[in-house]
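Task: sequence design from structure.
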């Protein structure tokens, strides 16, 4: 097998949450280009349809579920339906999430905390439990990629909503613990920790809180935000045989922000 053949994903199937826009869309397209078929989950029907068609234009099969994975019942049902309708699934990317709310800790209600933790953490647990069990029972190994954040390690500055830092730090440790448990099953579990990327949520932050985005950018040693396409090659690597011996890792991609 040649070096580049080890990155091929022919005959495999990806399930990705939050897969129709931003970072999720670019990872889904990259993995499809490497040869995998794709199951997309997202809330926005228009972007789901567009991304599904873009994947099919690459010569791959694609299916979509318009669901809110931050709702535990919907999340569970979607995973079960995906396995029943489109299984087996070889690659899982837990991408859905976001800060969404800029509420100081002292003002955040318990209900809001639970809602946002369900979005950023519980959804990843449910998908991992359901699809990971499917991988274990199948006995062919698998790849799980959790999208955490540099906020697992550093607090966002001049911004509230500390549910996000809490959930992403827990995501990294969940990644590490699950990697230990499932290594004997040849299932690798790794995390990607993005820094500043000018996705739609950050474009919204830039409009509503320009001082936050401007302050963030001045502290990036490379001088600019990343673009979503930067995550595609890293996701392909972690999903492929090239990364068969990497598990429990949390890979930071942030233009050097966390170095200073």
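Answer:
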């Amino acid at each position: 097998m040649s070096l580049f053949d080890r990155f091929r994903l022919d005959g495999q199937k990806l399930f990705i949450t939050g897969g129709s826009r931003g970072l999720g869309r670019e990872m889904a397209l990259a993995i499809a280009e490497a040869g995998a078929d794709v199951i997309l989950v997202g809330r926005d029907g228009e972007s789901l349809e567009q991304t599904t068609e873009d994947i099919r234009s690459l010569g791959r099969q694609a299916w979509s579920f318009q669901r809110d994975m931050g709702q535990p019942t919907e999340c569970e049902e979607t995973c079960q339906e995906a396995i029943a309708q489109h299984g087996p699934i070889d690659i899982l990317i837990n991408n859905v999430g976001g800060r969404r709310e800029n509420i100081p800790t002292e003002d955040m209600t318990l209900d809001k905390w639970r809602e946002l933790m369900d979005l950023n953490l519980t959804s990843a647990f449910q998908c991992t439990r359901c699809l990971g069990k499917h991988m274990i029972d199948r006995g062919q190994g698998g790849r799980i990629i959790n999208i955490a954040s540099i906020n697992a390690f550093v607090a966002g500055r001049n911004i509230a909503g500390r549910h996000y830092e809490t959930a992403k730090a827990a995501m990294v440790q969940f990644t590490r613990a699950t990697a230990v448990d499932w290594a004997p099953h040849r299932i690798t579990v790794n995390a990607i920790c993005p820094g500043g990327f000018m996705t739609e949520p950050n474009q919204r932050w830039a409009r509503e809180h320009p001082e936050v985005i401007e302050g963030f950018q001045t502290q990036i040693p490379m001088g600019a935000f990343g673009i979503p396409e930067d995550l595609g090659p890293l996701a392909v690597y972690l999903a492929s045989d090239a990364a068969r011996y990497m598990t429990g890792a949390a890979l930071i991609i942030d233009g050097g922000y966390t170095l200073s």
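The chain has eight helices and seven strands.
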